[in-house]
Amino acid sequence: MKVLAIIHGARKIDATYKRFLATCQEDITLNLCIEYTSRIGHASALASEAKGNVDLIIIHGGDGLINEVVNGLCANKGLNPKVFILPGGTGNDFIRNFKQSPLFETKPFELFHRQGTKIQIPFCQSERDIRFFINISDVGFGGHVVNALNYFRKTYGTNSAYILAVLRTFVSYKANTMTLKFNETHMEQPFFMIAVCHGAVFGNGMVIAPGKHPNKSYFELVILGDVTLWDYLKNLWKLKRGVRISHPKIHYYQTTSLQIRSSSQELLGEADGEALDGKVFTYGFSTETLEVLC
Q1: Of 146, 287, 121, 122, which is closest to residue 204 (Cα–Cα)?
Q2: What sections of the chain are H helices per DSSP?
Q3: Are strands 201-202 and 136-140 parallel, antiparallel or unpaired?
Q4: pLDDT tens, residue by residue, 160-189
Q5: pTM over 0.85
Q6: What is 125-287's CATH number?
Q7: Fold of 2-114
């Protein structure tokens, strides 16, 4: 079995995961190659090259690294290898959708041959490019948080950066007027955020779409009108516990495709924590599928 391990080069590897990778190297049934990323886009390039040449990709990193691998795989046609995720990021939101397997109860070869969870890969297309994602994308507030997050990470480090970015964005952000089309619905109004959820969890453990699992090929569309910082703080416990919020400006829908458009200003968004920008975002499901083990 040919296996490629893509390891985030700037992240410290947990001792348990080091031991697991060492066990994989010792397993004579596995042909393992380990690559450490050294730049943005490196994981995409490694995954693209590996497609059709390996049976499984081990990913050690956070949601951003997983997103890079997904986009690298989707860049080429053909059958995707399985992916096995060892969480090593700050939020690790995608992996929260799954129950993780004990690493040392079975041999790696047997673990890798288990049937994983098959996921259809969604996309977000703007005027500039197409971006694949595997968990959650949003337009509005989340895009501005990601924009602020880059600054706070450099200044204050990763541990407190997210909450500082959220609070800073709440103070400065104003709801954008957008046009939203899905199913037979057409809305044009100020939106605080439109979240397109393939999974349930984002934002460092916030369960924005309770009950949504990536193995279901539809989007849980979570629409927030002009909510306030007080609304956010008051409902924070519900987001942490996975309880749906009952609020006149928050609505939940299901769809398989949608379009978000701005007639004037550029919009900011994000997909799996990676920044997006444009005036038109079209969402749907690609023909690409991925079998996930963890």
Answers
A1: 146
A2: 15-26, 42-50, 63-74, 108-112, 141-156, 158-172, 229-234, 236-241
A3: unpaired
A4: 777 788 788 877 888 889 999 999 999 999
A5: yes
A6: 2.60.200.40
A7: Rossmann fold (3.40.50)
